[in-house]
Write a structure and sequence with these properties.
Helix 4 packs across helix 7. The chain is flat and about 70 Å long. Strands 1, 2, 3, 4, 5, 6, 7, 8, 9 and 10 form a ten-stranded antiparallel beta sheet that branches. It has ten helices and 18 strands. The protein starts with 7 loop residues before the first strand and ends in a 7-residue tail after the last strand. A hairpin with a 2-residue loop joins strand 2 and strand 3. The chain folds into three domains: 195 residues, Cupin (Jelly Rolls); 65 residues, JmjC domain-containing ribosomal oxygenase (ROX), dimer domain (Arc Repressor Mutant, subunit A); 140 residues, Alpha-Beta Complex (Outer Surface Protein A, domain 3). GO terms for molecular function: histone H3K36me/H3K36me2 demethylase activity; histone H3K4 demethylase activity; iron ion binding; peptidyl-histidine dioxygenase activity.
Length: 421
């Protein structure tokens, strides 16, 4: 993980390298689409004389209003550009598979000679892709150990708090700048050019500590249920010799109390449901995920290409005719996660997610436990197709029922297009 240790500058020498990813024309098209709202999708900001301000009105971000702000020296930050741009959506959906963590993005359009944001550090790994124009960047090391790979972003910082930059550069179209969590950064436009860049982010709340936040409470709950030592009462007099006020007291009871606590903590590892905690992390990740961007063949061989339609006054081609000989496979390997929970066996999936972050609740199917082997079989068989008859269910009816359910949710594709009979 050497990429967490220092900023990285990549010079392309190719101004059109990111052509087609996102542009000011795409920014304008998003505004004209009528779905962009101030504060929700768009921030109007400025930074001058050490003061960072947000100028968001309420309501829809109408082009005339937005471009007037820009003309008067304000920066424009479009949040969640993947909701408006299929290209950004596709780009991020590929990255989230590579990182195994949510990949998000914001785009920043800044007028010449201005700065939109105060110096700060973030809680994400940031990749700045310069799309148009150029921008002057300064990057600074974390100021103290506690700010190395931080869990949370900082407040706005003053110039006096920064010290000397470890990297100062002007990004031009096609260039890339990476800086890890905790590295302070600020960017400003030179007088002779505007700047459009997209910041791609990943690894937010994706540390060992975040994993242990899931694991340790679960381990403690299991220990309480299975081991009487965790349920025994505390010493009646422990308040008399424990606590900060007694921390310098030499007392055998203190020593025994601390040793008991250490012993119980060490024993927790025996009760730690590591795989179950990983599944809970995966469940959260799938909620964060963008839905997969489908190829033409994936569309044609999934429910998204199914020919159901209204014709001649009635629905046509509605029945999904899956048989024992239909060959199926998962749409993608990473789109589902099987979790054993108190409520039952849940299959979480991403195919019905929104392109807007957490716009909807997590998508899941509650399965009968006897279907667990079939889901695991589909996972282990990917990317190969298997016939429905090979699913390890007890009856043919169950095999077809499960395959049909997963097909309807966009989770399964067929080897051949389903043809109405």
């Amino acid at each position: 993980r050497h990429w967490e240790q220092a900023p990285l500058l990549l010079r392309r020498g190719h101004p059109g390298y990111y052509e087609g990813l996102f542009s000011t024309a795409d920014f304008d098209a998003a505004l004209r689409g009528g779905e962009v709202h101030f504060g929700t999708h768009l921030d109007v900001t400025s930074y001058a004389e050490g003061v960072r301000e947000t100028h968001n009105p309420s309501g829809r971000a109408l082009p005339a209003v937005v471009w007037d702000f820009y003309q008067n020296g304000c920066s424009l930050r479009l949040l969640c550009p993947q909701a408006f741009s299929p290209t950004v959506w596709n780009f991020l959906s590929i990255l989230q598979e590579q990182f195994g963590s949510m990949a998000g993005a914001n785009t920043y359009l800044t007028p010449p000679g201005t700065q939109g944001f105060a110096p700060h550090y973030d809680d994400i790994e940031a990749f700045v892709l310069q799309l148009e124009g150029k921008k002057h960047w300064r990057v600074y090391r974390p100021r103290r150990d506690a700010e190395v790979l931080p869990q949370f972003s900082s407040a706005n910082l003053t110039q006096a708090e920064l010290g000397e930059p470890v990297l100062e550069t002007v990004l031009e179209a096609g260039d890339l700048l990476y800086f890890p969590r905790g590295f302070i950064h600020q960017g400003d436009c030179l007088p002779d050019a505007h700047s459009l860049h997209i910041t791609v982010s990943s690894y937010q709340r994706n540390s060992w500590g975040d994993f242990l936040e899931k694991l340790i409470p679960a381990a403690l709950q299991m220990a309480l249920e299975e081991d009487v030592e965790y349920r025994r009462g505390l010493p009646m007099d422990y308040l008399q010799y424990m606590g900060v006020a007694n921390s310098d007291t030499v007392d055998a009871r203190r020593t025994a109390f601390v040793e008991k606590v250490q012993s119980l903590i060490k024993k927790l590892i025996d009760y730690a449901p590591i795989d179950a905690a990983v599944d809970q992390r995966a469940k959260s990740f799938l909620h964060d995920c963008l839905p997969p961007v489908l190829t033409q063949s994936e569309k044609a061989q999934s429910v998204y290409g199914f020919p159901a339609r209204w014709q001649d006054g009635a629905p046509r081609d509605v029945d999904i005719l899956i048989t024992k000989d239909t060959e199926v496979r998962l749409l993608r390997h990473g789109i589902v996660r099987l979790c054993n929970e108190e409520a039952g066996v849940m299959l979480y999936y991403t195919t019905e997610n929104s392109r807007v972050y957490h716009k909807e609740e997590p998508k899941f199917i509650e399965l009968d436990p006897e279907y667990t082997d079939s889901i695991e079989f589909l996972l282990s068989s990917y990317p190969n197709h298997i016939t429905v008859d090979n699913l390890p269910c007890e009856t043919l009816e169950e095999k077809i029922s499960l395959a049909t359910l997963l097909f309807e949710k966009g989770i399964l594709t067929t080897k051949k297009n389903l043809v109405q009979v």
